[in-house]
């Protein structure tokens, strides 16, 4: 590991200086599927911070204490998620109207539409006593839904495997980031850049940026035309891009093209993989606890009556289901930790320092701007799934949680689905 003067000695963690090396956090101590549990036990043992070793020569610093995390989060890059200081504040203010309930309201029917496509697929897939791997289907569903909400783009990515190159690029990038984290040699920028995966990653980035740039340019040209502007104002719903393009601060300043692209990218990635994880683990929890599953189903049936779809007004009435969703998010947090790479050295409140280039994981996070959007999507997916299927776990294929960027399962999430009459 790069030296971390004053913070860590040997491979022990902070908080229990007497623990120097024995049982110290090392990736090799993690059994398959036991990563989440192990990380939690280390967090208890080292309440401030600890270096987690990968191989014998490299480590990332896992930060647990809020005072340390605060210092770490004072540093950043592009896009709301990784901005900091006044620029973060300005972007956050510009973006906040994009998550107002007036904007989110029409998204509910778009989410329901995407969920139904997924459930139709499951109906075709279920065979007697054979479980269905859900995670991949849910990921495509949330991607489909975010494409509609972000760009008004109806991609058909759930049914058409040859769909849009942008969808493919986003899907590829999500997978490649995950793969890079898991494969140690790829942590080195040079090795990664010259590897086939690294080249695929660059190409996917290029395609994704090309698409976003094109959409921004076209929409901007529209906005300069008064008639088109009126058309946008009369649209059934405003997508995220409309909101971003119209956003102005008190001095009338909007976002630059580069900032726009970074925000769209953040929205796309934060907005589909996180909810995919949340929904998949929620359905797994429902399968594990049939009594809660049934209580949620009854609540949903009572709210909907004869209706087959969910509307905005229903969401606030799903009291018991909301409690179950929150419990599932607590048990299986879609974003278990966040990481930062230090672009300059930092000094903590107690005088300890870290050099530039240190890779950190912090358990304390910013407030998610998309949490209402996410909650709506989780509720819609839960309601429509429980109306159509009874869920139970596949004892032969229990999921193995792996907290990477997003909490996934290394072997997917397999559930038995029984179509309800
Ligand atoms: C269950 C779903 C979700 C979870 C668990 C989640 C979790 C988080 C977390 C932990 C952060 C803080 C990250 C940090 O401090 O580095 C965050 C930030 C953020 N999230 Fe979410 N998120 C979810 C859904 C969404 C959705 C659906 C969107 C957009 C549509 C979104 C957009 C963002 C953005 C833009 C930020 C940066 C906010 C800022 O820095 O001010 N998230 N999210």
Automatic annotation (TrEMBL):
InterPro entries: Cyt_P450 (IPR001128), Cyt_P450_E_grp-I (IPR002401), Cyt_P450_sf (IPR036396), Cytochrome_P450_Monoox (IPR050196). It comes from the Eukaryota. Residues 21-31 have a biased composition (Polar residues). GO terms for cellular component: endoplasmic reticulum membrane. GO terms for biological process: lipid metabolic process. GO terms for molecular function: heme binding; iron ion binding; oxidoreductase activity, acting on paired donors, with incorporation or reduction of molecular oxygen, reduced flavin or flavoprotein as one donor, and incorporation of one atom of oxygen. Keywords: Iron. It holds the Pfam family p450. Residues 1-32 are annotated as: Disordered. PANTHER family: CYTOCHROME P450 FAMILY 4, CYTOCHROME P450, FAMILY 4, SUBFAMILY B, POLYPEPTIDE 7. Belongs to the cytochrome P450 family. This is Cytochrome P450 4B1. It comes from Chelonia mydas (Green sea-turtle). The lineage of its organism: Eukaryota, Metazoa, Chordata, Craniata, Vertebrata.
């Amino acid at each position: 590991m790069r030296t971390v003067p004053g913070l860590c000695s040997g491979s022990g963690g902070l908080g229990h200086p007497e623990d120097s090396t024995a049982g110290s956090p090392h990736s090799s101590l993690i059994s398959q599927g036991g990563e989440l549990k192990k990380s939690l036990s280390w967090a208890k043992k080292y309440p401030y911070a600890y270096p987690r070793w990968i191989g014998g020569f490299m480590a990332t610093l896992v930060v647990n204490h809020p005072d340390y995390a605060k210092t770490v989060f004072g540093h950043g890059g592009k896009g709301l998620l990784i901005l900091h200081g006044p620029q973060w504040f300005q972007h956050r203010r510009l973006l906040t109207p994009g998550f107002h309930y007036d904007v989110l309201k029409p998204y509910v029917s778009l989410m329901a539409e995407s969920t139904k496509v997924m459930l139709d697929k499951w109906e075709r897939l279920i065979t007697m006593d054979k479980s269905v791997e859900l995670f991949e289907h849910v990921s495509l569903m949330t991607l489909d839904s975010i494409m509609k909400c972000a760009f008004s783009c109806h991609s058909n990515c759930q049914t058409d495997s040859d769909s849009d190159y942008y969808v493919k690029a986003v899907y590829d990038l999500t997978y490649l980031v995950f793969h890079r984290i898991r494969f140690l040699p790829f942590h080195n920028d040079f090795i990664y850049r010259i590897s086939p995966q690294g080249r695929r990653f660059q190409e996917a980035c290029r395609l994704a940026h090309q698409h976003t740039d094109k959409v921004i340019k076209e929409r901007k040209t529209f906005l300069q035309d008064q008639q088109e502007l009126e058309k946008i104002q009369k649209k059934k719903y405003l997508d995220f891009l409309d909101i971003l393009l119209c956003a102005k601060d008190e001095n009338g300043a909007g976002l630059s093209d580069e900032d726009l692209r970074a925000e769209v990218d953040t929205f796309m990635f934060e907005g589909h993989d996180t909810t995919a994880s949340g929904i998949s683990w929620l359905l797994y929890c429902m399968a594990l606890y049939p009594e809660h599953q049934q209580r949620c189903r009854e609540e949903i049936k009572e709210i909907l009556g004869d209706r087959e779809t969910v509307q905005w007004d229903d969401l606030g009435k799903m009291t018991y289901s909301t409690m179950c969703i929150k419990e599932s998010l607590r048990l299986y947090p879609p974003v278990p930790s966040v990481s930062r790479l230090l672009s300059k050295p930092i000094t903590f409140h107690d005088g300890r320092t870290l050099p530039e280039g240190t890779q950190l994981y912090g358990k304390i996070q910013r407030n998610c701007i998309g949490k209402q959007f996410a909650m709506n999507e989780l509720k819609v997916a839960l309601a429509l799934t429980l109306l159509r299927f009874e869920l139970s776990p596949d004892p032969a294929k229990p999921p193995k949680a792996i907290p990477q960027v997003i909490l996934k399962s290394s072997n997917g999430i397999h559930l038995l689905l029984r179509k309800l009459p």
